[in-house]
């Protein structure tokens, strides 16, 4: 019998699972089972154990528990501190553990609370990590350091890190050099990640990194990633056959030093991209993709401040073809030189956009500027949320020479600290500001008029200082 991710609320005294191999439980339930002497009845054959919300505020040491499971191969941990798992501090600790537990070689850490996975050299965590063949680190936003620079990953064959938005660099050079068995490396959706490998100790003399066994490399949705490796290290991938780089719009080059990938003949945007791109070598291919903005194809969530180099090209027609799938757009102070956000063609191309937030743009006067009458009066057909914040010169959402505009799906409108915004739309095509606040006191016009249609409107919010009267 195999029980996979079984979430047990309570164990009846007559229920025994002697053959169970996979089990996931909240820590407080495991403590209850151990204190009642029941856990050992079904834990002896466990190969995969999931621990949720581990806490040392109990009589049971989580670390010691692992040593009672002789067949344990995989450990999945959710929502706790790393040291609560790999440090012995409990009332039942009788032995100082000097080796990793049993057959443990697969570790998944999800939603950990730590800011860094740091420990002393030759400590128990070092021994645990040296034995790992697979490590997955997921949704750990507090994490700023993955592992200490002295760590050796001598047996690791697969490493995946995703949704860890505090990580700027992944591995020190010294750690990267220890990855002699690594065959798969996957890094996804880490918003702050700039480098995968970064220089560590200044006394490192050898300037070459060789990933001898790496066959698959995937870098996805890393908006601030500029290159794979910092410095001028020579990097070799003698076995690399598949590279996927998608939505890494700031990646200008793969490596600044010498680069060798003898078995690689294409670079894919997604895993399903069978044709791929290739310009003779990996560096040249990455450079061309950056110039042609290939990394933005299919992008769904976009924050402009992550790509400051786009500021000058924002109104370029090139952008239109890449944002067809965009669902969420955040525009902030990195676009401070823009007087308007969208041309009609760019706005009409955002048919999938659901959320639009624009804030801290000091010279922005309008969101959309339309210079001629149009037959299509529907803007952003799927937009449900619009937020405009701290826009001191914003005069209007858009001008519209036609009869009316429609935002058919808009349900939430939030306008905060936009003191010069007197109307949502206006019929003029210029961007003149109101002549004076005194005139507005005697000639107040409605903010919304018959030209604006909100078919799904549920909620709006304005701060008092959003308007000059």
UniProtKB/TrEMBL annotation:
The keyword Transcription does not apply. Residues 21-149, 152-271, 300-432 form the Disease resistance protein At4g27190-like leucine-rich repeats domain. InterPro entries: At4g27190-like_LRR (IPR057135), LRR_dom_sf (IPR032675), Plant_NBS-LRR (IPR050905). It comes from the Eukaryota. Keywords: Plant defense. It holds the Pfam family LRR_RPS2. The keyword Hydrolase does not apply. SUPFAM superfamilies: RNI-like (SSF52047). This is Disease resistance protein At4g27190-like leucine-rich repeats domain-containing protein. It comes from Acer yangbiense.
């Amino acid at each position: 019998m195999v029980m996979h991710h079984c979430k047990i609320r309570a164990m009846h005294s007559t229920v025994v699972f002697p053959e169970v191999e996979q089990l996931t439980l909240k820590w407080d339930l495991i403590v209850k089972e151990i204190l009642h002497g029941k856990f050992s009845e079904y834990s002896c054959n466990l190969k995969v154990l999931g621990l949720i919300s581990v806490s040392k505020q109990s009589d049971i040491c989580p670390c010691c528990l692992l040593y009672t499971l002789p067949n344990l191969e995989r450990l999945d941990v959710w929502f706790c501190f790393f040291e609560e798992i790999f440090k012995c501090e409990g009332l039942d600790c009788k032995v100082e553990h000097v080796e990793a537990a049993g057959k443990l070689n697969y570790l998944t850490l999800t939603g950990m609370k730590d800011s860094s996975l740091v420990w002393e050299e030759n400590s128990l965590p070092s021994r645990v990590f040296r034995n790992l063949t697979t490590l997955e680190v997921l949704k750990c936003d507090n994490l700023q350091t993955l592992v200490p620079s002295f760590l050796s990953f001598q047996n690791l064959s697969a490493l995946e890190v995703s949704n860890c938005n505090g990580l700027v660099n992944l591995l020190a050079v010294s750690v990267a050099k220890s990855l002699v068995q690594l065959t798969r490396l996957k890094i996804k959706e880490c918003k702050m990640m700039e480098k995968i490998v970064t220089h560590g100790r200044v006394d490192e003399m050898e300037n070459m990194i060789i990933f001898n066994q790496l066959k698959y490399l995937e870098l996805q949705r890393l908006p601030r990633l500029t290159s794979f490796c910092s410095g001028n290290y020579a990097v070799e991938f003698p076995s690399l056959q598949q590279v996927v780089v998608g939505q890494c719009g700031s990646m200008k080059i793969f490596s600044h030093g010498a680069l060798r990938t003898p078995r690689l003949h294409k670079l894919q945007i997604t895993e399903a991209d069978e044709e791929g791109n290739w310009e003779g070598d990996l560096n040249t291919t990455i450079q061309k993709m950056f110039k042609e903005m290939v990394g933005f194809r299919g992008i769904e969530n976009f924050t402009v401040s992550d790509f400051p180099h786009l500021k000058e090209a924002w109104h370029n027609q090139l952008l239109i073809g890449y944002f067809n799938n965009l669902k969420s757009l955040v525009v902030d102070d990195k676009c401070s030189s823009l007087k308007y956000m969208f041309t009609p063609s760019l706005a009409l191309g955002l048919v999938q956009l659901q959320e639009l937030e624009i804030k801290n743009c000091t010279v922005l006067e309008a969101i959309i500027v339309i210079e001629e009458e149009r037959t299509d009066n529907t803007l952003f057909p799927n937009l449900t949320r619009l937020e405009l914040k701290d826009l001191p010169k914003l005069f209007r959402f858009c001008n519209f020479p036609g009869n009316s505009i429609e935002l058919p799906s808009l349900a939430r409108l939030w306008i905060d600290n936009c003191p010069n915004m007197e109307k949502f739309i206006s019929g003029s095509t210029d961007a003149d500001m109101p002549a004076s606040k005194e005139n507005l006191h005697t000639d107040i016009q409605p903010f919304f008029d018959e030209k604006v249609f909100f078919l799904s409107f549920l909620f709006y919010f304005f701060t008092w200082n959003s308007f000059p009267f």
